[in-house]
Write a structure and sequence with these properties.
It is a single chain. The chain has 3 domains: 3-57, Orthogonal Bundle (Arc Repressor Mutant, subunit A); 79-162 and 259-281, Periplasmic binding protein-like II (D-Maltodextrin-Binding Protein, domain 2, 3-Layer(aba) Sandwich); 164-257, 3-Layer(aba) Sandwich (D-Maltodextrin-Binding Protein, domain 2), CATH 3.40.190. It is globular. The protein is α/β, with parallel strands linked by helices. It has 12 helices and 13 strands. It has helices spanning 3-15, 18-25, 29-43, 59-86, 99-104, 106-116, 129-137, 171-175, 192-203, 216-224, 238-243, 270-281; strands at 48-51, 54-57, 92-98, 121-127, 143-146, 156-161, 164-169, 184-186, 210-212, 230-233, 247-248, 256-257, 260-264. InterPro entries: LysR_HTH_N, LysR_subst-bd, WH-like_DNA-bd_sf, WH_DNA-bd_sf.
Length: 287
Amino acid sequence: MTESRLRALVALADAGSVRGAARELYVTESAVSASVAALARELDVALVRREGRGVRLTPAGDVYVSYARQVLGLLEQGRAAARGAADPARGPLRLAAVTTAADHVVPGALAAFRSRFPEVELTLSVGPRRMVWELLASRSADLVLAGRPPSGLDALVLARRPNSLVVVASPAVADAFSLDTTPWVMRELGSGTRDAAEEYLAEHRAAPPRLVLGSNGAVVAGAAAGLGVALVSRDAVGAELAAGRLVAVPAPGLPLDRPWHAVAGPAPTPTTRLFVNLLLDAAGWTA
């Protein structure tokens, strides 16, 4: 049960095909098939089945791949911890952040950290809330920058930074705002701000028209263009508010307090601690 075999199975699950897994791992298709077959023989259970001209995981494969992710994540975390213990300023650091944080909170911190510790091997994964917390749960990320972590996650909140969600619109839309009739421009399902907007509307028993756009930038641009109002982090619209392209709408019960959290697994690596200490030295972050 080697690391390369586990990686082949995970890559197959992620890519959905042997060809895609081989491309991701820079190996031949036969190498992927041989690795997965060897795992199946060792476990004495079928991990994949043929479907049309391709393959897909069996129910047993779906179960096992979640454990494989955790094993691979722990191996990566162990390597990071060992290298960081030897010299934290040269260890790896795997960050993950939700889109808004990646766009407006992380860049400054990364630049300061890179300037102070240029030999740290930095990687940053960006995605919706569910993805970044799954990365932390599977030990595939050392530190997540996002909203509040989900309950039940084995993790440590190491730092917090204030963040408020506000409803914004173009001046013309704001002047005619109605909670029940003005359209709301929203992120896709799985976004933290989308969930917050839906919860807000449900709490106020409002059912306005909804327009779903695929990114935070598109939501902000759509609101500025007059498509409707949007619930967004104030961090994401500072320039638009200052320029007057957007204005804050005085909707009831707003702004919403949704702090940013810097969250690590139960045993943060020394290099992770270096990054968190830099955050705590910056304005706005507290332990």
